[in-house]
Design goal:
The protein is of the alpha+beta class and 324 residues long. Helices cover 39% and strands 29% of the residues. The chain folds into three domains: 97 residues; 119 residues, Band 7 domain (Tetrahydropterin Synthase, Chain A); 72 residues, no CATH class. Strands 5-4-7-2-11 form a five-stranded antiparallel sheet. Strands 8, 9, 10 and 12 form a four-stranded antiparallel sheet that branches.
Length: 324
Amino acid sequence: MSLREFFRKQFVDVIHWTEADDGVLAYRFPMQDMEIQYGAQLTVRESQMALFVNEGKVADAFGPGLHTLETRTLPILTNLQHWDKAFQSPFKSDVYFFSTRLQTNQRWGTQQPITIRDKDFGMVRLRGFGIYAYQVENPLLFHQRVSGTREVYTVADLEGHLRNTIVGRVSDAFAESGIPFVDMAANLHELSERMRELLAPTFAELGLALQSFVVENLSLPEELQKRLDERIGMNMVGDMRQYAQFQAAQSLPIAAANEGGGAGLGAGLGAGMAMGKAMADAMSSSQPTAGGGQPSAETKFCSNCGAKIVRTAKFCSECGTAQS
């Protein structure tokens, strides 16, 4: 190296990094035309780690604290450079800082409905969304597999890959949970934990730790939601025979309140008789009689009030209406 080249070089004796913006995962310390002084001070703050890379190979890693760079603190780099214990010359290495703080409020969601098997409905298509949080746990692995030699690597650079990975595992998690869709809303915490367990190894392969995963909401496409609402309505109605009896009983006061003159009164009475007969028929089909569910051969029902009377009776013993 010529004397001119020697003076062109700058020697670094303090190495540190503070995050200027949110969302930075990895940062390469600028080292162009610079060499590190023997005995320089390396400051690694809480929520950070640092890697020294020499000739393309990761040499040493440092956690939070103040480190004096010498043979004792750079054992791997010293071995790579074949320095003896007395070396005190400047050296060239790339220094990468990594933010290990929690990256919170990361969003995930299914752009298109996913199809899963369901205990109640057989197959359903559903949408889901929520949040998750992660952090860099293994800087060496993250450097080798994700950030590489880039000057800056951010959360935004990784967001698309993580989101697609999550969506790809959602259907597996829901299917393995065995929880019917109608019960999922009451078991979102269990689903969230199951998802975190399934996704954690995938994050670990990238040098990341998935600290939390939350399923905030699950929903069906609009057309399927209508079908579910119809089924819920049928379940609320319950026994159709009992529902028919209730409807008939509700119609009687309406018919009796009809005040449309003689014709109206007749129509009202007719409607009342028809409703009474409908209620009587409905009740007779659901209530046992002396003949095992059907009127005996010796009895009949009044055409007006529905009371059970003797078949040969000319008038109803309950309401006095003439019988045919």
